[in-house]
Specification:
Blueprint: H1 2-19, E1 28-32, H2 38-46, E2 51-54, H3 57-66, E3 73-76, H4 85-91, E4 94-98, H5 101-113, E5 118-124, H6 137-147, E6 153-160, H7 172-188, E7 193-199, H8 206-211, E8 216-219, H9 221-224
Parallel strand pairs: 1-2, 1-8, 2-3, 3-4, 4-5, 5-6, 6-7
Helix pairs in contact: 4-5
The structure holds pyridoxal-5'-phosphate.
Length: 228
């Protein structure tokens, strides 16, 4: 079941990429396993999932412990409280959701303690929704300039979560806006800031996100089914 679903998602990623002339190999699938029990996550790993996305630190710590012998990498995609940074740097290869200087500084400090340079993305709240995390586009450049000076952080790109729409076409302007922000930051050539990654697209809209340049798609429901 998980295996077939995962294969279908892979096929859809490939056809979206090929449909717009992109190399499917440049798009990484993050299997979003929040609320999914470890035994079902294990099925996805056996079916070839190599990157897991988790939203909650406590849940991620438990699963990371249960699945520690597995050849997978863990990404954090949820809202991160600064006081959980010390756990996050131990588990996650990429943190998609840095959206404020206080958090960036704490991650830098905790990564330094374990002698790590922590790769991160900056989460942007493009639609400026009250209920969502993420920095406003207008404040993005200032955050990046400050965070660029932190020795134990490595900024790799941007992440966004557009408002929910039934029609994925409605999300397109938000994806395209994130890509344009990325391009603008790239032009600044800020030392210690890479802008290769664009994390955007979920179950309902990942094909559109790929057409707009996504390099990481975060997909849960289409792989694991509806969350209870
Ligand atoms: C839950 C979640 C996803 C996955 O959503 P689906 O619609 O189940 O694919 C992606 N990104 C973030 C930030 C999430 O919280």
């Amino acid at each position: 079941m998980v295996k077939e679903r995962l294969q279908r998602v892979r096929d859809q990623i490939r056809s979206a990429a090929e449909g717009c002339g992109r190399d499917p190999g440049k798009i990484q699938l993050v299997a979003v396993s929040k609320t999914v029990p470890a035994d079902r996550v294990q099925q996805a790993i056996e079916a070839g999932a190599s990157v897991l996305g988790e939203n909650y630190i406590q849940e991620a710590r438990e699963k990371h412990h249960l699945l520690s012998h597995q050849p997978i990498s863990w990404h954090f995609i949820g809202h991160l409280q600064s006081n959980k940074a010390k756990y996050a740097v131990k588990i996650f290869e990429l943190i998609h959701s840095v959206d404020r200087l206080k958090l960036a500084r704490e991650l830098d400090k905790q990564a330094g303690k374990i002698d790590k340079v922590q790769p991160v993305l900056i989460q942007v709240n493009i639609a400026e929704e009250e209920t969502k995390s993420g920095i406003r586009a207008a404040d993005l450049m200032a955050l990046i300039r400050e965070a660029a000076g932190l020795k134990h952080l490595s900024i790799r790109g941007l992440m966004t979560m557009p408002p929910y729409f039934d029609d994925p076409e409605a999300a397109r302007p938000f994806f395209s806006a994130l890509r344009q922000l990325r391009d603008r930051i790239q032009e600044e050539q800020i030392p210690n800031v890479g802008m290769t990654e664009l994390s955007m697209g979920m179950t309902g809209d990942f094909s559109t996100a790929i057409e707009e340049g996504a390099t990481l798609v975060r997909i849960g429901t289409a792989i694991f089914g509806e969350r209870s």
